[in-house]
Amino acid sequence: MTIYYIKKLFVLFSLLLSSLGFCQENLKGYFQPDISLKYKVSTNYSHSFKAAQRAYIYEDDFSYRIRQIDLVHFSSFKIDPKQSLALGVQYRFRHTFDEPEENELRTVQQYKYSHSNKNLNMGSRFRAEQRITPSLTVHRFRYRFAIDFPLKGEELDVGDPYFSASAEPLLSVSKGESPIYDQRLTSHFGWLLDHGTKLEIGAEYRAEDYTQATQHIFFLLTSLIFSL
Question: What are the phi and psi torsion angles at 19 (to 5°)?
Answer without folding.
Answer: -70, -40
